[in-house]
């Protein structure tokens, strides 16, 4: 066998080992595009997952703050009820002392009223409760009565509701980031499937679908709030 034939056989064997032929220009162009898409998807997926984790953490923090604030509101409301109960007990004792004509004892019970209850008590006396049928049943029913602890409880409950609502919004934002992460995985799937196609039209179609889906998801990703 001549040297020229040996060279020709060796060349053919080398072509078979390397795939039989060089990649065509359109394949090279597509591969470059696929690499770019994969790089963008990888970065976007990492960012989306990071944001989802951050928003999850923020949501948990707000829920914790809401629960803590709600407990504080319950505590303030309980203490406010105890204060009101004490004032009401003193008022009942005052009524008994007053009805018995024991002014000294009645004055003693008046001194035990809290400042807020005493204001309401004076306003209640001004309504002539012992002669007027329209007078309120007691100082606690007067508009002048204000219990700071009840007001604090109302304020804390409102704040707890705001915190809980904000936490729910953060949870929804985290879910949107998770949704985008899943869509990015779909883009990777389309690119991977496209790389298996040897027909140019099918491969271009797969990459076009992946690109469109990627652009749409990136648009929604950019529109989401960030922390």
Provide the fold topology.
Blueprint: H1 3-17, H2 25-99, H3 103-111, H4 115-125, H5 148-196, H6 200-223
Q: Please tell me the total number of domains.
A: 1
Helix-strand topology string = HHHHHH
Tell me, briefly, the overall form.
rod-shaped
Spans of at least 5 consecutive residues whose pLDDT stays below 50 are 1-7, 16-20
According to DSSP, the number of beta strands is: 0
Average pLDDT taken over every residue: 87
Determine the N-to-C terminus distance: 74 Å
Describe the main β-sheet briefly.
Answer: none
Residues in helices, as a percent range: over 70%
- Roughly how many Å is the radius of gyration? 39 Å
Number of helices: 6
Structural class: mainly alpha
Assembly state: single chain
Which percent range describes the beta-strand content?
under 5%
Architecture overview:
The two termini are about 75 Å apart. About 80% of the residues lie in helices and about 0% in strands. It has one domain. The model is unreliable at about 1-5 and about 15-20 (pLDDT under 50). It is mainly α and about 230 residues long.
């Amino acid at each position: 066998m001549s040297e020229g034939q040996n060279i020709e056989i060796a060349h053919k064997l080398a072509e078979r080992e390397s795939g039989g032929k060089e990649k065509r220009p359109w394949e090279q162009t597509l591969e470059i595009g696929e690499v770019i898409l994969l790089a963008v998807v990888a970065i976007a997926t990492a960012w989306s997952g990071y944001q989802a984790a951050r928003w999850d953490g923020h949501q948990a923090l707000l829920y914790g703050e809401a629960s803590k604030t709600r407990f504080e509101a319950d505590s303030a409301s309980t203490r406010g009820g105890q204060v009101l109960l004490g004032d009401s007990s003193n008022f009942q004792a005052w009524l008994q002392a007053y009805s018995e004509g024991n002014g000294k004892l009645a004055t003693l019970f008046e001194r035990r009223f809290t400042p807020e209850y005493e204001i309401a008590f004076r306003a209640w006396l001004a309504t002539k409760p012992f002669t007027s049928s329209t007078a309120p049943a007691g100082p606690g029913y007067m508009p002048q009565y204000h219990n700071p602890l009840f007001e604090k409880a109302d304020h804390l409950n409102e704040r707890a509701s705001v915190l809980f609502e904000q936490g729910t919004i953060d949870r929804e934002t985290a879910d949107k980031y998770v949704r985008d992460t899943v869509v990015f995985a779909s883009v990777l799937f389309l690119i991977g499937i496209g790389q298996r196609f040897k027909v140019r039209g099918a491969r271009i179609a797969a990459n076009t679908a992946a690109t469109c889906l990627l652009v749409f998801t990136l648009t929604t990703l950019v529109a989401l709030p960030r922390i």
